[in-house]
Amino acid sequence: MALKTKEQYIESLRKLNLKVYMFGELIENPVDHPMIRPSLNSVAMTYELAKQPEHEELMTSTSNLNGEQINRFTHIHQSTDDLRKKVKMQRLMGQKTAACFQRCVGLDAANAVYSTTYEIDKAYGTNYHENFKKYWDYIQKEDLVVDGAMTDPKGDRGLSPSQQADPDLYLRVVERRPDGIVVRGAKAHQTGMVNSHEVIVMPTISMRPEDKDWAVSFAVPTDTDGIFMIYGRQSCDTRKLEEGADIDLGNKNFGGHETLVIFDDVFVPNDRIFLNGETDFAGMLVERFAGYHRQSYGGCKVGVGDVLIGAAALAADYNGAGKASHVKDKLIEMTHLNETLYCCGMACSSEGCPTASGNYQIDLLLANVCKQNVTRYPYEIARLAEDLAGGLMVTMPSEKDLKDPKIGPYIEKYLKGVDGVSTENRMRVLRLIENITLGTAAVGYRTESMHGAGSPQAQRIMISRQGNISAKKELAKEIAGIKEEQNK
Ligand code: SF4
Ligand code: FE
């Protein structure tokens, strides 16, 4: 069975024995928890759309490992067409959820681990690539959700993993046994971990020979003994706990989530290990994963941007300002910025190339340029959306007031916009804009645009490495007729 239904996915999550803490308490039933459920619904949409004939082309693919039809969120890219379809799929998912749908991290981890393990095996005669292929064949056949865990807490950023006062600040091997390894540490900012069946762990930075115990990559089920998660807070998150909450949520059905995940002496069997002490390959794995995830943002954020642009246009219509020239111009600017991000996602995909293992990788320079733009443009799009929404977005009363028999009629009367549009609908669209720009989805649309897949400086380092300034100097010399430099 390669494609699960949405219902089968939800049932499969119920079988996991996850340890999730929120507000200092262990959660008994994460699947039905009102604060977690919208994020689960976002992942479930990856299953739902894959079953719809009109989305089959984008949402599914044929596995290079077993020849079966699989969800594209588990695909090992076989061409630049696959890379472009990935971005298009993410844009579609962003349009349908207006939130982070979480499943891309495992996809990006898988493609990075697939190609890197091939190269490690060639250099060291290890068996990591076969380990990974066997593991990923299982993931594809079971249609599972996999979290990709990269970011360590990192402690003192000026020190390498082995120099930290507390060696656990980077996840590490604490014991080597004949049948496997025992690891200890934590991974921060773990997108979608509570909705995942499995987790692929990777190192977070390049390593030196003395960092051998920290150069480790592996996969385990998310309910493995020793793993527990601490659920991250999001702006306005407790609104979801309010009885009957709907309008005030802005996006009642969908959301994302982040967790701090602790690995408290977790055993990993040998056949689930993909890197174990080969420090010289840690950097390659990080660079490739980051590259794929920087490409991803040229799809997912664009899809959410589409919803935000639509919401801003609706808000202007409901205010009676839809035909004003400055409103039209702001919508043009938002569209221009959003499509620029999409251009970057498509460009780094189109310029992709095969790795030694045969899967396809994005153009790293262009993927980093993509993500660098993502650290900026969603903020400007959000600013323009707030401009068009007007101040009412942050001053209007709650839905309980709107529904109150005594106060409600006053709100209905005085917060009315154009004739023919209910005050409730006006409030709904403003709450949606609030959700994306300031509320729970702002975690994904704004701050994650800044820090997700690496903070802006990380992309600038890669851009400086890949930018090839010396070749550009040669171009300039050629045109300017500079044959020999004076000081030579
Ligand atoms: Fe996918 Fe975007 Fe969420 Fe990353 S931020 S997991 S790319 S939806
Ligand atoms: Fe992310």
Structure description:
This protein is α+β, with helices and mostly antiparallel strands. It folds into two domains: about 280 residues, Butyryl-CoA Dehydrogenase, subunit A, domain 2 (Beta Barrel), CATH 2.40.110.10; about 180 residues, Butyryl-CoA Dehydrogenase, subunit A, domain 3 (Up-down Bundle). Strands 2-1-10-11-7-6 form a six-stranded mixed beta sheet, with no helix packed on it. The protein has a four-stranded mixed beta sheet with strand order 5-8-9-12. A hairpin with a 2-residue loop joins strand 6 and strand 7. The longest helix has about 40 residues. It is globular and about 75 Å long. Bound molecules: iron/sulfur cluster (SF4) and fe (iii) ion.
Described by the principal axes of the CA atoms, the overall outline is globular
Radius of gyration (Å) = 24 Å
Distance between the termini: 68 Å
CATH topology-level fold name of the largest domain: Butyryl-CoA Dehydrogenase, subunit A, domain 2
Please tell me the overall pLDDT. Answer: 97
Model regions low in confidence, pLDDT < 50 over at least 5 residues = none
Q: Characterize the main sheet.
A: 6 strands, mixed
**In terms of structural class, how would the helical and strand content be classed?**
alpha+beta
Bound molecules: iron/sulfur cluster, fe (iii) ion
Q: Any idea of the CATH class of the largest domain?
A: Mainly Beta
* Beta-strand residue fraction: 5-15%
Number of strands: 14
Protein name: 4-hydroxyphenylacetate 3-hydroxylase family protein
Keywords: FAD, Flavoprotein, Oxidoreductase
Domain HpaB/PvcC/4-BUDH C-terminal: 282-481
Domain HpaB/PvcC/4-BUDH N-terminal: 5-275
